Amino acid sequence: MKTKAISLMLVSWYFLSGISSLVFAQNQPSFQGLPFVTNYEALSYQAGIQNFDIIQDDLGRIFVANNLGLLEFDGKTWSRYGLNYTKVRSAFLGADKRIYVGSQADFGYLDNNESGDLIYTSLADSLPDNLKDFDETWRVFGSGDLIYFCTFTRIYTYDGKVVHAIDPKKRLDISFQVENQLYSQIQGEGLFKVNTDKFELIRNGDFFKDKRISNVLPFDRGRWLITTFSHGIFLYDGEIKPFLIKSGNWENRFLINYSARLRNGNIALATQNAGLFILDKDGNVLIHLDKSSGLQDLTINFIYEDNQGGLWLALNNGIARVELSSPFSVIDDRLGLSGAGYAALKLDGNIYLGTNNGLFVWENGRISFIKGTEGQVYSIQDIRGQVVLNHHNGTFLIKDRKAVQISDVQGAWILKQHPTQTDFFIQGNYTGLSLFQWKNGTLAYVKKIKGLEESSRVMEFDGNTLWVAHGYKGVFKLKLSEDLGEILENKLYNRAQGFPNDDLINVYRFSNRLIFTANGGFYGYESAMDRFIPLAEFNDLFGYGTVMADLEPDELGNLYFIEQARLGVIKPQNNHQMVLNSSSFNKVKRLWNDDLANMIVLDNQNILIGGKQGFVHYQPSLDLPRTDEPKVFFRKIRNQGIDSKLIFSGHGAGDGSVVDANESPFSYSQNSFSFEFGAAHFPSGNEVQYQYFLENYDQDWSAWTIEEKKEYTNLREGDYVFKVRAKTIFDQVSRPVEFRFTVKPPIYRSVFAYILYGFSLISFLFSGFKWLDKRHKTQTLKLAQEKELELKQKDDVIETITLQSEQEIMKLKNDQLQSQIEFKNQELTSSAMNLIQKNKLLNTIKSSLKSLMEENGSQELNTQLNRLVRSIDKDLEGVEDWSAFAESFDQVHGKFITRLKEKFPELTPQEIKFSAYIRMNLNTKEIANLLGISVRGVEIGRYRVRKKLGLSRQDNLSDFLLRF
């Protein structure tokens, strides 16, 4: 009877739920973009399309139960473990770091071996045959030292040693764990509590006998949230009442495959046919994701929230990750907005969005296009409660979702209210300035302002002075006439007045002061100097050389900015200092629109960044300090050399901070290593950077790089520690992970080798000393024998010395004689040379005298000269000189002349002289001078001597005389 009452009450709730969904539709968030969604197709992870369960290990790696095994994802690389080639349905990370898995007709665990490989061990194989008759192990839970493997036949417990079975004797459905207590649904009976060896029906548990439960969640104190596959959601505290979903997006026909309570208290629903729903605790739909929102499949089997706040979805076709905790979301064509984002305005609860395709309005959770605004939007402004659109085609008023054109001047950039004549507005456009006036409750175009023909996109008033920035000329300082119809003064400021150059100069208003930016930093105008000077407070914060694209303040004093390399926010502090935060914005820095970059503050909690496709929405309240420190780990460590060996495969290194080589020191022939590493920081995607350092080899940490591999070759012997750390896109740096190893020296530099070298040296020295001692004794004995022999031979030695003395005396005498002969020979040669010179001189004088006689006609003088010539001829004959020469020549040359005369008496005295001079090796010319004859006469003399000596034509005269 009680059950019927509950059912009647539920019918009433279901009847009212359709109405309530309309009533509460207005309570959903009025403005929120789509979260970032990353889809992984079966082709990318190389396994089956269906996925059922997801867990995460201490290093942040994700494990997914898949049709073809257990998948592992470390942020970049997918791996698969076959597990007896069955469909894996569930997984659980135990306190012992084992991964317990359930699959078709099997369950067990994966544990690492010494080298870090995950090895599967089946526990079901050890069961007796009567307990093996189960089909699916759909859930695995842990509590204390027990692991529960929940099948549809019975529940098995494992205490680390033995498997026990809890048998309900009836068909089970899915099991659940709430606050470490296990519950299970028995088909046709309801929800039961599982004790050590029995099942107990909970209070009113029979209400669910005909309603399949998809999950049971803690909701608040003493209450559960129970989701069913096809009968809705219920709150349970012993009593049961429906939990209503208050949104028109939800339909009761949607099937709930799974539910999860998120860390922020929200509830995630995985449906069979409608994608993902995120509810608050009151049942309001905060987010609905389906294919149009970025999911690749509508069927979601499981939800898991990782340690970085991302929501992993096990899809019927693939895997997805949704970044729900990110302060950024995207507003693009999936929500009905087309084009790149350029402008936005929040007014009266509506959001106006301007793109290059026109103006759109976000109203009641929907985006619609405003007709008549096709084309480029430049800015949207609230002027006294009216929406004014500055457009490529002119200026428009937006009334009742319609565009009314009030000016056809093309290229309307922006409107600025005059500071003193407040009913007038100055507009910058492609060709200068236009004047508008507020009149009769609306804005109206007045006329073009004369005096400026330049494009005026950026401008600000400083008192009655209007500053207009130009993209590549500088900034104009303008003074308008009293009626605002023309420009009275126009001065251009650029590099000549303090700017670093003429390009990219802009002007912004911040805290009631004008800030000028240029291609090189921040500047302020000094009226006393009439020039611009750098603003140190901003340049020191950003760094000199900054090129600013946009600045936008909010009401709290925060200053949002976009520059060429980054975007972020400057926040004022209590000590009047400013803090720059750009790391949070690194997630979206590649998405912003670099054409007329813009950052729009709608209010303090809604900031839009113009994107290449639509807008990026930023909520500062969600930008919380990050406590999820990234963890870096080794994927593979390989030792290389003569052989290549994988020494570590990524698992079982404790918390990942230190990995030791599981073997003795590596031989010198194996002195090369390669390291592969990673960090499972999923918000960073492929933008995680790494830094490494090898102690005892590198001088310092390397530069940051996205490369995930490092090799070292031909390392010397020694102890090494390889360290690597990771940095996320949010500039968080992990603690380093280390691998310690030792390389042994080559055999010739080993300790054994040095001992051998020492022993060899000692042996060598010992042998040397022994050899020297033996040699000394031998030499002493030999010396004694030699002395005895010396005494015996003394007489012979004395005789020998005497004989040698006599021979030496004779040799000395001979040497003395030889020296005398050589001296004589030198004297002969010298004498011959002197005689040659003398005869040559005399012949010259003789020739001169004869020439003088021929030229002089005096008889007396010729007689005197003739007498001198005869005296010279007599001297040239040199009879006395020859006698002395011949005597000396015979002494030196063994009486050559005497012997020659005796053997060849027919030789004339002149021929004797000729022969002596030839023996002295004198040349023909020298002989001619000595004999006072011509060279021809010498040749004739040689012929006559040869003939008288009886020499043939082949005999050499000089050789004959030298041997004679």
From TrEMBL:
The keyword Cell inner membrane does not apply. Residues 684-728 form the Two component regulator three Y domain. Gene3D superfamilies: Immunoglobulins, Winged helix-like DNA-binding domain superfamily/Winged helix DNA-binding domain, YVTN repeat-like/Quinoprotein amine dehydrogenase. Keywords: Membrane, Signal, Transmembrane, Transmembrane helix. InterPro entries: Ig-like_fold (IPR013783), Sig_transdc_resp-reg_C-effctor (IPR016032), WD40/YVTN_repeat-like_dom_sf (IPR015943), WH-like_DNA-bd_sf (IPR036388), Y_Y_Y (IPR011123). This is Triple tyrosine motif-containing protein. The keyword Amino-acid biosynthesis does not apply. Residues 1-25 form the signal peptide. The chain crosses the membrane at residues 751-772. It comes from Algoriphagus aquatilis.
